[in-house]
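Lab meeting notes turned into a lecture example. A postdoc, R.K., suggested we walk through two folding results consecutively so the class can see how the record format repeats. The first protein's sequence and structure tokens come next.
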Amino acid sequence: MRELILSDAGVTLADIYTAGGDVLMGTLRFEKESAERVANEIAEVAAKLKRVRLDAEEAVLEVRAKSLQTELVAKQAEKTLLTRTTESQTLELSRGRSRMRELRGAIGRLRGASEYSMTRRIVYKFRLYTADDTQNSAQALANITALCRAYLPDRHEIEVVDVFREPQRALADGIRLTPTLVKLSPLPVQTIVGTLSQTQRLLQMLGLDAVSA
């Protein structure tokens, strides 16, 4: 069906508009078409708004994803650095301990060498009180002489005091028996009575066992 439409431009012939089985003509048709245009425009605007919202949400998610990725990379780098630092510290600690052991060993060797060197330079001074040429006195002199030659070569002095010839000196030194050996140096002063026949015991009493070792 068609209808005549009267307007400023004149009379035009147009198709009849139907909606829901009803024939709309004139004002009703205009109102219906206007409502449909508004509805379409609203739907289009709503769709555009939804797209904008979705685009915004997508952008936010992309930013979050990039932020998380950056944080992940930073954490991985931090973990790697921590591992390397720990390994480096462990290695340095091990090296430090090894160095300390080496230094302690070196100090011990130097100390031992120094002590040995000092021991090698010490001169042992002895005074042997005898009673003339009695057998015990002769034996004591022979024993201390042999010991010094064996363990203190070129580092000993032996003074022999005959109590028969110097009785006042013997009394002043507190000598009551012969033979009596007095180690004057190095300190401490030590006194040994007898024939000095037990070499190992004599070395220990005189502090010479370390030298003999």
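The second example is placed directly after the first for contrast:
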Amino acid sequence: MRAPRSRGASGKLPVSRASSAAGSALRSRASCASRSMRSASFIVAEHINPGANSLLRSAPGVHAPFDRFVEALGPRGSGVRLAGLCDAAEVGYVRRGLERAGLGASLTPADTEALGFFVCDADLEDELIRAAGTAAVVRLLDAQAELASFRSFQKQPAQQGRDDHAQLRRFMGTRSGRKIRYGALLIDALDLDRVPRPLDKVLAHVRG
């Protein structure tokens, strides 16, 4: 069973987004600092998790929005169920933000997951490439007429000695819009039983 195709995302990158729909559509409030994370989260959520309440996203450079949304939506605000994803580099900040919002003290990794917040290693693109497998990602590049560009990229001095996984992850960040496009395409091509653990767990948490 395949996840459905993205409904698309355009315009400038928002630091927050509210989304609601009737029936089987996802109801959520989301702080989305990464367009690729936003796209992947909502594509999978719309397919397998229609009852979600809140998804929060934190990434480098957007600390204030994360804190603001936890305060607004958490126990000191509207009191809705919160769940979130963060990059590995941001886990300390996320824990401190949760603590400041009254969700615990001296939170351990297990505590953070119990609260519904899960860490991507190292980020969502890394998780998606690992889940799909490098061979599948290379085939996807070929289908998008970007395989020649990737092969040229692999020949650059900075890429020598790096494995295919690392090169693919870096390649996705070399052009504006490429991460969001491939985030959506990878989710679209991914069997639901291969959804990366952090994304699977966060959606399971908000599904309750």
